[in-house]
Amino acid sequence: MKTTKPTKQRKRLYQAPIAKRYKRFTAPLSSKLQETHGANSVPVKNGDTVMIMRGDRKGSEGKVTQIDRKNYRIFIEGATREKVDGTTVPVPIHPSKVMITRLNLDDKWRKKILQRKAVSETDEIAKEPPKKDVKKKKKTSKITKQSGGT
Prior knowledge:
alpha+beta, SH3 type barrels, about 30% helix
């Protein structure tokens, strides 16, 4: 975001269009998936298997059953709570608090995105030039009568 004011950041968060909301649903990939796909994070989709990393349900794993783009929350199979009247309801979880352990690759567009991300990361590593050691000259001040030295 281009602003540092919290009110403007909140406003842009709540008034964001669907395409920008999609980008904010990114979750980190597990280390195994990072090696195979060459990407650090991917937006969460229905059918992905995720592990909850924060909160009361930390460590539990399940499939993403529903995505709520309006409230920036995902619903995971097995992450439910019981209401007072006995009915069970799914618990909403923010996508930044989960880690993707298994990707749903049924979508051909998602495969292309992962391939593009893998290529761009390898290009960045290859383009990085070797850093040269630059020695800085230390300035030594000479004390003279004009500068008021003793």
